[in-house]
Amino acid sequence: VNQEELDRVFSANFFSPVMLVNKLLKLKKLQKGSSVVFVSSIDGSRIVHAGNSAYSASKSALVGMARNMAIDLAGKKIRVNCVLPGTTDTEMIRTANVTEEMLLETAKTLPLKRFAMPNEIANAIAFLLSDASSYITGTELVIDGGSSIV
């Protein structure tokens, strides 16, 4: 991993979401009762893959920031949580060197025998943003169909 790669990955996965929340706080767009949900990953804080250290580190840093922000913003009644999706069926998992057969074989190794669908991640985020989760802050919601426990 070189500095350029770290800068690119951390900019997208860590600095951008953190600075967005900081800007929203400065502009007083996050009021009492607001909720912030960061999207991290199981990659880094729960599992690791060879050759994925920059991504894993940036997503792990986001989990740490969310936990600290939860403490820092609790006095303002602003909740901060983090979702940690596993592999999700999006275009991102389909690269030039990954075939559909490879994806199907990988899915077969997971407890639920499939990848998450984007709406399943979105539903979890909606829950954490809603009043139904009004007593949840500083948590990491793993949404991986059990893949990080096998």
Describe the model.
By secondary structure, this protein is mainly alpha-helical. Helices cover 47% and strands 11% of the residues. It has five helices and three strands, in the order H-E-H-H-E-H-H-E. Strands 1-2-3 form a three-stranded parallel sheet, with helices on both faces. Helix 1 packs parallel to helix 3. It starts with a helix and ends in a 7-residue tail after the last strand. The model has no long low-confidence stretch (mean pLDDT 95).
Give the helix level as a range of percent. 40-55%
Rg (C-alpha, Å): 16 Å
Number of helices: 5
What's the overall average pLDDT, rounded?
95
Low-confidence stretches: none
Strand content: 5-15%
Q: In whole angstroms, how far apart are the ends?
A: 28 Å
Question: Which descriptors apply to this entry?
Answer:
single chain, 150 residues, mainly alpha, three-stranded parallel sheet, 5 helices
Gist?
The chain is mainly α. It contains five helices and three strands; from the N terminus they run αβααβααβ.
